[in-house]
Amino acid sequence: MHDSELDGVMDLVGDARIVAIGENNHHIHEFGVIRHQLLRRLKAKGFRTLGFESGFAEGAKVDAWLRGGAGDVAEIGRDGFTFGLGDSPEMHEMLTWLRTQDIRYSGLDVPGSGGSPVNALAAIDSPLARQAIEATAPYSALNSALVPYDKLSETATVALTKLRDSLDDPREIHLATGALRLDAYLKEIAAMMAGKPIAGASRDRYMAESVQYLDQGQKIVVMVHNGHLQRVPFQIMPGHSTPSAGTYLAERYGDEYFALALTGASGTTTGLANDESARLGFRMYEQALGEPVEGSLEAELGDADTVTDLATSKATKIRHAHLWSEVEVSRAFDAAIHLGNLRVSACVPGVNHSV
After folding, report:
1. Nearby residues of 282 by Cβ (< 8 Å), 6 or more positions away
2. Domain with CATH 3.30.1870 in the chain
3. Domain 1-47+220-355: what homologous superfamily?
4. Are 1 and 337 in contact, with CB atoms under 8 Å apart?
5. Which CATH number fits domain 49-109: 3.30.1870, 2.60.40, 1.10.10, 1.10.3470?
6. Model-level pTM greater than 0.85?
7. What is the pLDDT of residue 354?
8. What is a biological process (GO) this protein takes part in (predicted)?
């Protein structure tokens, strides 16, 4: 994508103070490159805070490293990010640049790759935090796919609530809230797996709460999946939607919030498969994208790389990994960067961009 087109994104951003940059899947090479390029431009517009779709608790390691802490970029990418989102060469390049800049970093998400509250609880100096670690130990896992859902209990919820309500320090309160939101999120997944209605969207709620926790009146860049940043609820199955983080942020910030989707017409994307022998309990693989379906934003925009104001879009679908999300695109997003072809990042096993 040409520099002039990315410069045009800044015109669309206008006076927005919370700018969310999405992606239709993680570990896509072009999305990582474009996000970095946009962050550089937003810094020139006065943005000095970056919130990322990764654990809030783990993010303290990243921010300390960016301030000059010990370790190399691969180490901080591995240990400072949840869901493996710091492992790509595109993220390494952006982190290396950030280490030379006056930009604060924060994770936004629940702790422990959506499976374990330990990283959040261990950062709280309280005997009740240690009790909460013990109470949640029966279900604590590397990620939500590996959680023994039959071990979820009200005992853990009570311990987490007691801890949060005992705290005075705002950061410790937010850490404890993350553990509570994770507890609720896992119960929501269990309900969905049992075919029951889902009462809330605790993970997205916490991401929005994290943005508000960071907000001291400054300009903030948010990097999350398109499904998290859209301004309207996300449809997780036909006839059932839950609020996205962007739903909460749009309600809170109105026109100060700008939602930018990143998507593409064809190429390859990542898939995930459970693998208990892998570091995080899952492995990534490369898969081909099918042709854009009728009614989708990708079909509407065709094969060319483009930056588009979506106010007049008629699309009712947008890519979500290799699937399609039903949404009124003009209401969900303010603008989109659409690419003709996508490639998965070289961090995905078996991928070699030099070939």
Report:
1. 143, 145, 272, 273, 274, 275
2. 49-109
3. EreA-like (biosynthetic domain) (3.40.1660.10)
4. yes
5. 3.30.1870
6. yes
7. 61
8. response to antibiotic
